[in-house]
Amino acid sequence: MRMKRILLAVLMGLLPSLGVAQQVAPVLGARRGGADVRFTSELAVAPLPPVSYVAPVMPPLGEPEQASGMTLAELEEMAIRCNPTLTQAAARVQAARGQSLQVGLYPNPVVGYQGSEIGNEGRAGQQGGYIGQEIVTAGKLQLNRAIANQEIRQAEYVWEAQRFRVLTDVRRGFYEVLVDQHSLELSRRLVGLGEQGVRAAEKLMKAKEVARVDVLQARIESDSAKILLEKAKNRHTAAWRSLAAVVGNPTMQSVPLSGNLQEGMIQLGWEETLNRLLAESPQLAAARAGYARAQAVVNRECAGRYPNVGLQAGVQYDNATQDTFAGIQVGVPIPIYDRNQGNIYKAQSELTAAQREVERVQLALQQRLAAVFEQYSTARQLVEKYHSDMLPNAQESLKLVSSGYRQGEFNYLMLLTAQRTYFQTNIAYLDALRELRGAAAAIEGNLLSDSLQTAEGSEGIPVQK
Fold first, then answer.
1. Nearest-CA neighbor of 188 among 228, 219, 216?
2. CA distance 252 to 207
3. Are 309 and 331 in contact (CB under 8 A)?
4. Rounded distance, CA 452 to CA 401, Å?
5. Cα separation of 412 and 405, whole Å?
6. Average pLDDT, integer, range 98-124
């Protein structure tokens, strides 16, 4: 019974911070097992001043938060403007357009000098010039440009995919930092309560009302809270640095973010999510453009069976006879051995591979979505469970234990356990929100992320005439 009295006295200094008790009174009565137990002012040595305490319960889903700072829209705009990978992808689009221009250009004519019989009988011989032109047949230039146009489409889809990657990374980073902001606040409140407990225990030990083991226990709890705070600070710093890198401004100083962790969350279903992904995925669109390109390559290689025609016309002056004469040459390769059959076979095989690539990308998207959707569904259920049951129960439990402790019904360990459970439940709730937001951002971004990894490129087609 005496130990219970001592434990009750130790935690009286914490009760004001929990918002459930008034200033420690000189005389406090409680009914325990039918006996009237009274604590006089002689035991309540130097009570601590009240500490303002705000319950760290997250607002319900959809409830706006009163916060000011940098918004998600501002970070997205900065990333679109500054992230170097988008500039890279845009440059590849321009390169593909330049390639399309180049492969459709007609061959340049050839102008040259020709001389013969120079020095015959001491004369200058025949002197003159010529002009030559290669005639491209079977519409090869148009077919080259058709291939290049599909290259442009592929490059544009690569840019679109990169844009989704950047936005997904920004959204994930934004909510990561936002969650860490809340975790920091929770950790700071827990440290404050721990310090209050240490001061209360030390004062009671000086009054010889508690043993040193109680002070050591209070210090352990306080130090544990400080460790959690340091970990929360380091995690917040790392999350901010990662976000700054994604937006393309690595020297950007950490500032508060303004946002609502629950706002804008909608219930997603598997079928509609999969259908939207297959309809909007730039990766799948790029694979389909690759199949169209492979078809154009087959057409181009089939046209390659028909050789181009070489024309040449020249004029010469014969210094011996003082005659001027002209000459014309026409050359056409005879396709006896080389009928471009190897390139045709290669193009047809690549067409089959491109067709299977479309199927592979579809299946890969479904496989990746299955894993991400499982994370989303699990996180969604956790968030709803925490919000509807666990957080209210933890808060109600803390109130009841605090009230019961004030009346002498519960000991210090019970109050400490309720307080610890309350904070751990809130932190677990934030972790569930982190998972939910990350999975939702991945689904919204068509499963594209890791924007600062090696960017996708498109292979240029050879310049053929």
1. 228
2. 52
3. yes
4. 50
5. 8
6. 87
Six-digit token string for 340: 């471009």
pLDDT tens, residue by residue, 389-438 = 999 999 999 889 878 877 767 766 677 778 888 888 999 999 999 999 99
Rounded CA-CA distance 75/173 in Å is: 10
Q: Which long-range contacts (CB under 8 A, 24 or more apart) does 29-34 make?
A: 30/407, 30/408, 30/409, 31/407, 31/408, 32/1, 32/4, 32/408, 32/409
Q: How far apart (Å, rounded) are the C-alpha atoms in residues 223 and 396?
A: 26
Structure tokens at 126: 């025949």
- Sign for the CA dihedral angle at 60, 64, 68, 73 comes to positive
pLDDT for residue 261: 85
Alpha carbons 206 and 160: distance in angstroms, whole number? 69
**Residue % of the chain over a pLDDT of 70:** 81
C-alpha distances out from residue 272 to 40, 278, 302, 358, Å? 68, 10, 42, 20
Largest CA distance in the chain: 146
Identify the pLDDT of residue 291: 97
CA dihedral 171, 173, 174, 179 (to 10 degrees): 120
- Say which amino acid occupies 357: E
Q: Name the residue with tokens 């050591």.
A: 216
Q: Which H, E and C letters describe the chain, residue by residue?
A: CHHHHHHHHHHCCCHHHHCCCCCCCCCEEEEECCEEEEECCCCCCCCCCCCCCCCCCCCCCCCCCCCCCECHHHHHHHHHHHCHHHHHHHHHHHHHHHHHHHHCCCCCCEEEEEEECCCHHHCCCEEEEEEEEEECCCCHHHHHHHHHHHHHHHHHHHHHHHHHHHHHHHHHHHHHHHHHHHHHHHHHHHHHHHHHHHHHHHHHHHCCCCCHHHHHHHHHHHHHHHHHHHHHHHHHHHHHHHHHHHCCCCCCCCCCECCCCCCCCCCCCHHHHHHHHHHHCHHHHHHHHHHHHHHHHHHHHHHCCCCCEEEEEEEEEECCCCEEEEEEEEECCCCCCCCCHHHHHHHHHHHHHHHHHHHHHHHHHHHHHHHHHHHHHHHHHHHHHHHHHHHHHHHHHHHHHHHHHHCCCCCHHHHHHHHHHHHHHHHHHHHHHHHHHHHHHHHHCCCCCCCCCCCCCCCCCCCCC
* Cα–Cα distance, 379 to 373 (Å, whole number): 10
Characterize the bridge pairing of strands 309-318 and 126-135: antiparallel
pTM for this prediction:
0.77
Which residues, at least 6 apart from 414, have a Cβ–Cβ distance to it below 8 Å? Answer: 401, 404, 405
**CATH 3.30.450.20 assigned to 2-55+71-104+136-305+340-444:** no
